[in-house]
Design goal:
Elements: E1 6-10, H1 13-30, E2 35-38, H2 45-58, E3 66-69, E4 71-73, H3 84-91, E5 103-104, H4 113-126, E6 132-135, E7 157-160, H5 163-168, E8 184-187, H6 190-194, E9 199-203, H7 209-217, E10 235-240
Parallel strand pairs: 1-10, 2-3, 2-6, 3-5, 6-9, 9-10
Antiparallel strand pairs: 4-8, 7-8
Bound molecules: 2-amino-2-deoxy-6-O-phosphono-alpha-D-glucopyranose.
2-amino-2-deoxy-6-O-phosphono-alpha-D-glucopyranose (GLP) binds next to loops.
Length: 247
């Protein structure tokens, strides 16, 4: 399927972050109470740094903004230094004027995963839906923690991580040993993500080139979860030269 995915190819990874931050800052300027979806991983770290810079230097206010994060490791509570709640607090929320109660990160230590996931979906609906969702991509094409095989209409749920993903997240950047990586996570579904009005996926580096080629030019198939964005009406991939090298 030749999809609708728009491509913005930048010279460097730094430029990807600057461009992505611009897109989010523009949305927040035009919709001060925007509902924003966020991602974790190494790729968006610099985008968050840029947004914090824009907040500081230009006074961009997040006081009306509500956020929803894609996913969280199952079994980690928000105080754990590898939890995605901790990541978001330290990388972004603590540096801007967002109201902590407007930040939604799934609770990896909830007593009932299904109730936690249901409540997350209900809060997205109650907020009026997501204006823009920032995404990364795994080397196997996953988005959030939707591993290959995830259905196009999947909703927020408890999922198992693939060996590839466990390996990728224990390469020293996050967990130092694969044995420490939780085997499961709570993840927004592909259906949940596809309902956002706008999607922006970031990818940098040669390690992502195959996944990007499959997402953009491969078949529309759960075998590559990110290919299931091909028919979204407003989806842009912001890539560096390396990530775009197999297109
Ligand atoms: C994890 C996250 C994804 C992220 C992916 C890639 O699996 N759940 O949301 O896109 O890692 O991360 P990185 O940017 O570190 O390559």
């Amino acid at each position: 399927m030749a999809g609708n995915i728009k491509l913005q190819i930048c010279e460097t990874a730094d430029e990807v972050s600057v461009e992505a931050a611009k897109v989010f800052a523009d949305i927040i300027r035009s919709i001060p109470d925007a509902v924003i979806g966020l991602a974790t991983g190494s790729t968006p770290e610099q985008t968050y740094e840029e947004l914090a810079k824009i907040h500081k230097s230009e006074g961009l206010s997040f006081s009306g903004v509500t956020t929803f994060n894609l996913d969280e490791y199952w079994g980690l509570n928000g105080d754990h230094d590898q939890s995605y709640r901790h990541f978001m607090n330290t990388q972004l929320f603590d540096k801007i004027d967002i109201r902590p109660w407007n930040t939604n990160v799934l609770n990896g230590a909830a007593s009932s995963p299904s109730l936690e996931c249901e409540a997350f979906e209900t809060r997205i609906l109650a907020s009026g839906g997501i204006d823009i969702w920032l995404l990364g991509i795994g080397g196997n094409g996953h988005i959030a923690f939707n591993e290959p095989g995830s259905p196009v209409d999947s909703r927020t749920r408890l999922v198992s991580l693939s060996e590839d993903t466990i390996e990728a997240n224990s390469d020293g950047r996050f967990f130092s040993d694969p044995a420490e990586v939780p085997r499961c996570a709570l993840s927004a579904g592909i259906g949940t993500i596809r309902e956002a009005r706008k999607l922006v996926l970031l990818a940098t580096g040669l390690k992502k080139a195959d996944a990007i080629a499959a997402a953009v030019e491969g078949p529309f198939s759960p075998d590559c979860p990110s290919s299931l964005l091909q028919d979204h009406p407003d989806c842009t991939f912001i890539l560096d030269q390396d990530a775009a090298s197999k297109l």
